[in-house]
Amino acid sequence: MRLSVLGCAGSVPGPGTPTSGYLVEAGGARVVLDLGSGVFSGLLRRCDPFDLDAVLLSHLHLDHCADFSALATYRRHHPEPPYDPSSRRLSVLAPGHAPERLAAAHAASRADLERLRLDELFDFTPLAAGRHRIGPVEVEVARMRHICEAYAFRLTHGGRSLVFSGDTVQCGELVELARGADLLLADAAWREQAGRADHLHMSGKEAASVAAEAGVGRLLLTHVLPWSDEQGVLADAVAEFAGPVELARPDAVYEV
Question: The pTM is what?
Fold first, then answer.
């Protein structure tokens, strides 16, 4: 499997860094994990969006789904699509209220909201804990602990696996999903801090603790907030996890 980072900033874009978005390629399948602010541009540099097999949205905060509007516009208005998008709707696995939420973000008026039906272009599947198959790729889904409905994904192909935490606090559900994975792409928004609000994000140390308990092969830290001390986040994780640890970078590519 190949993981391409389209964006990795937390909450808002950083200088030259879009928010959450990743492209996974395996066995000829192309799957996008999240489509945050500015991510669509990076996707266009990697592949034709018409060649995608599925989009997985971990949750519906804008830093994880804002550029879904760009994808919808591209599929609806491209003058020379390789096929009729309404005849080959793109699979979207997302929280159950995604069709209404994403249509509202895409529409500029109430009339648009009534007219622009996203289910003409996309085949929405409500997320829940369980397993799915996207071509040759197996996807396991687990509910996470965030301030809204949120999920993590484990993608497996050819005996290799990667786990994307989405946004979550440290929890046993993520440890179980990540157990033995080759790579954990983990929310690590900040350093340890007293009085932090619950059910938002992990620190670098907490993400590393999950990686150590789950016995993953490699830890990739993402969703660091632009105002956080990213080198401190990395140092905290390195001190907690004995395996390889890196900060995700936009346009970086990782072989899993």
Answer: 0.94
